[in-house]
Amino acid sequence: MATCSDATDVDADQFICSTFNQSTVIQLNVTYSSKWNYSSVISLPEQVLLPAEATSVSFNVTANDVGQVTTYLHCNNSDLNSLSVRIRFMVVHSNVLSVIGEVIGWVYFLAWSVSFYPQALENWKRKSVVGLNFDFLALNLTGFIAYSVFNIGLFWVPDIKEGFLKKNPNGINPVNANDVFFSLHAFLLCVVYISQAAVYERGGQKVSWMALLLLLIGWTFALVSLFLAVAKQITWLDYLYYFSYIKLAVTLIKYVPQAYMNYRRQSTEGWSIGNVLLDFTGGTLSILQMILQSYNNGEDDYPQPHLAEDNTHQSQFPNGLNCSPTCFPHSIKINVQICNVQTANKVQLSQ
């Protein structure tokens, strides 16, 4: 069984298929392998012949063992070469485990998303935010602003997406639609918390000077980085990475003020236990998914990945085509449809 995805973020309806006037010899150049010898993962044909006037060609790939291999297509046709086509092969232990992993992913996504509501409901019921630490609110808001900026940039801004693929030719864009939804949803709920803090009883609480200092450092860092990006001293992709560092730093420290406040008061009144339980559930399922995927993809016994000597194609995040046979060896027939792209020089792969 094989499933395919195009090597770019361009939608399928943006591709216009065309033919070539002469026969084309296509070679599969391996640029990444999770094992030292890629042939221990899959067996590839030495070359594939695309007949003249043809829009597709089929070739057999045999899966030998669990692992990942990424190839770039090179041929004697300059027009096709300019498209820089890549195919990712992933051989897993079981398709069932892959489905279970996806289900777990959606469950923890929902758990994390829903985890924001118990606190808002608790505040509304009590008409009070006493017990909810304002340092936590301020840090959490900053963290999700940074997370949203990172996700929006890598998901929606074409120049940044192109920059990521240039920097990581074998890479996969780490941001999906659900990541964007989660970060924006979390940001809006943080705004709801702060709105509640503005109108409900707060017991004279305010943001501490330490939290204000940390926020000042974070936003000064973001502002200086912005000037550097505008001046082209750093790339916009690097600028987004700096926002991800802000989010990481916030995540590491944001619960400390709340935990200290609970300890000092000897009470968790005002701090929703539902939020904690759902957050813990999401985190536990996330770790479970990583363990499951690590076993299924064979990553628990991967040696140092082999990267081909072609430096223009080196990356540790392969992407492209996903092959998932459940037993070995299996012969997989893959149909590659050659297309021209209106807005990006890429090729779509279809099963």
Number of strands: 12
Q: Indicate the low-confidence ranges by residue numbers.
A: 1-17, 302-351
Instruction: Output the radius of gyration.
Output: 25 Å
Largest sheet: 5 strands, antiparallel
What does this structure look like?
With 351 residues, this protein is an alpha+beta fold. It has two domains: 135 residues, no CATH class; 141 residues, no CATH class. 47% of the residues lie in helices and 17% in strands. It is built from ten helices and twelve strands. The strands form four sheets. Strands 3, 5, 7, 8 and 9 form a five-stranded antiparallel sheet that branches. A three-stranded antiparallel sheet has the order 4-6-11, with no helix packed on it. The radius of gyration is 25 Å and the shape is elongated. One of its GO terms (molecular function) is L-cystine transmembrane transporter activity. This is Cystinosin isoform X1. It is found in: Endomembrane system. It is a multi-pass membrane protein.
